[in-house]
Design brief:
The chain has 27 helices and eight strands. It is mostly helical. The protein has a four-stranded parallel sheet with strand order 2-1-3-4.
Amino acid sequence: MPFLSIPEKVSLIILLIASFVLFSRRLQHVIKQIRASKPEVDFQLNPIGRRLWDFSWEVLCQAKVIRERPLPGIAHAFVFWGFGAFALVTLNHVATGLGFPFLERHSYFGRIYWWFAFTFATLVAVSITGLFIRRFIVRPKWLEPLSPESGVIAALIFLLMATYIPMWWFPEVTTTGHVLWWIHTIALLAFLPLIPHTKHLHLLLSPATIFLSRGGFSKIPPLAGDEDFGLDTGKDFTKLTTLQVHSCVECGRCTEHCPANNTGKELNPKQIALGLRTYLNEYGTASDTPIVGATISQTAIFQCTTCGACEYQCPVGIEHLPMIIGLRRSEVNTGRWEDEHGTKLFLNLERQGNAMGFSVTERDKFIAKQELPIFDGSQEYCLWLGCMGAYDPRGREIISAFGEVMRHTGTTFGVLKKEKCTGDPARRLGNDLVFGQLAESNIAALTQTGAKRLVSICPHCVRTIAEDWKEFGVQVEIEHHSEFMARHLHLLPSTGKEKSVVFHDPCYLGRYRDIYDQPRDVIAKSASVIDPPRARERSFCCGAGGGLVFLSEETGERVNHARAKELADTGADIVGAACPFCNSMFRDALGSTSTNPPELLDIAQIAAASIRSQAVK
């Protein structure tokens, strides 16, 4: 039986039209910006199965939201699932007002579904109340600045639930039910146009953002020719970048885990995404105004260690690192970035082929002194030294130790007679010209020697060779020394576990390569393993990545000091590392933590020491 009068129905239709017009106008503006942006250079939809899995796991199951912040995550998930549960109820609600109900609550299906929706209404009401209290009363710093719109949205969602639940006892035909129906309707029609006008646009865009990822963690897209300077102006926005910045939910998870922001620096990954969104709203995709300086700080983008914590934590699929490196590219390629240390680094890479600027004869002397064989194609492995392994004193010690391990396992290996930096620091700092020169030189050397299997002590070298060199049409098989040693674990001696080792997960080994257990397994053969408070996927960066080990860190607390203190505070006898850059950063930092700091060793040194210990026995 119709319960709305003719004037009420007319009013409802007018409100529906107004709400949908306000909703669609803003949404069309965003879609227009996405369509006006340039396409991705190397985007591939395949493999589709992986994308469907990520969509199901991260969107439908809300697994990432829950995993990283369990309590607020489950509350957010209930709100999200509540939207799905209420889709049918909402459609029936409007249809009932127009006189065409299709979900009868007293039918068999209707009774089950109404109880289902009733349950979710209760869960959503409780959850949104908890989220409101957390944002506006508890107020974690990474949620700042507070936006009034979040409070309005939370109030509308609560009102929708609070007006739906009583209608179980007060049908629409009753006076109370009639009033509740109209309050629910007005809240619903007010909520709809707010979605595309606020951060809640992520409700519509984030499923597409997650499904249409670049297909790899921190995957840096190649430049599209000589005229592509990176993310410089509005004309350089790609479709994925525009989609992602409009999807930001401003949750602050990226900020919470950013090592630069945590040590008092200007960089805030959330503000990178929001700064790009502000640029689009103020300047558009056709603007020639440089992004850096207009809505984003140059200082901030060059404070990024490229640790990937922001990208790993983001629940809506925003890929911060391609954005930051794209912005760095624009500053380097246009000559606007003037940094004494950066200039020196690029010159060292161009002239000497290594980041430190040493003569190649120093590498030759080290190889001769250690009696490292030259790779001639007959050995099983080509041992990639890298800049740190070839020129840094501690890096050389790690190479020497790993050589002992390889010989102990009976593995034949050799090193390249000529080897240059992989180009990692140039790549991460935005100098693709130098990166390309180094990569092509190294690829030629590998091709000439016929090297097929590489192993390296440096996760940065492994990442650059395995992923970034793909731009030049090569697929090099390379593994990290922790993977090699873990595979030969049965050949490594087990010694007494008298000492404890706190293991620091390198960003480029953990988040980038998903290697966590292998280095711990190697350590566990001769010592007890301790995890620091921030370990594995949540490991805190040493501060070296993104080329920053070669720059000057002048603002706030030093990242390596913050991490070194956390590691030393565990009380472990030894700090275990699996990256020569981490080793270099902790070398001095541990000394500043106490007068009796723990010993610093690479996992190869720990394994080599146990081999020597067994030999003595």
